[in-house]
Amino acid sequence: MLRGKKIGIIGTGNMGKALARGLLQANVITREHLLLSDRKAERLSTLVEELGAVSASNEELIAGCDVIILAVKPQDMESMLTPLRPLFRTEQLLISIAAGLRTDRLERCLQTEIPVVRVMPNLPVLVRSGASAYCLGHYASWPHGVVTSLIFSAVGLVVEVAEEQMDSVTALSGTGPAYVFLLAEAMAEAGAREGLPEEIAGYLAVQTILGAAQMMTQSDDSPSTLRAHVTSPGGTTAAAINRLEQQDFRQIFYNGVRAARTRSAELSQE
Known about the structure:
The chain has about 270 residues and is an alpha/beta fold. It has helices at about 15-25, 40-50, 60-65, 75-80, 105-110, 140-150, 165-175, 175-195, 200-220, 225-230, 235-245, 250-270; strands at about 5-10, 35, 55, 65-70, 95, 115-120, 130-135, 155-160. It contains 12 helices and 8 strands.
């Protein structure tokens, strides 16, 4: 579906750079069919030299690409798009990864019936282990979703959701890596308090999280079932889990995710 197509990425910060690398590493597209633009010339030239992709201005990229990925900051989006509005064509696909920007807002900004897809990727796309969710705009249809899935599967897992669910996606997978980093911090600090050297406690915490994550991805069992398997009655794991449950661990976590979703909705309105 992407054979012969040209993909352009406007913005080569962390997310744009990760997508460019992922697309080439997964052989989704060839170097000569990947166009990159960025207002920071030095950052752009460094990435173009690394990847062998094509450097372009925003105007050249829009004129020459079938799929355009907007990887710029949300607050810069409308000022960047407005002067470029006449260049877009309805046969193109526009993919935005700007957090909080709804598809209808982008459609109003463009003032044309171009298909728009909104994607919420998360930080692990940098290591091709991301979790991305997308929703279709008013003029986008199933084939546009397939193209989006092909692109973002190069850097991890992809799912489709309704736009009304994107704030929940932000609160779960978008913000989620920080929850895991906090867990790693807490585990390492707890190990150090119990007598381990800080460096060793850190290694053990990170590897434990990595190993547990791999078990969940490779097992047909649910996380709840896997937890039950390692929780022997009267054992050390049971003692820890019981204390966490007594301290209302789940509700604390629920409250955190709810706060993130609420803030995401507020930012969308702003």
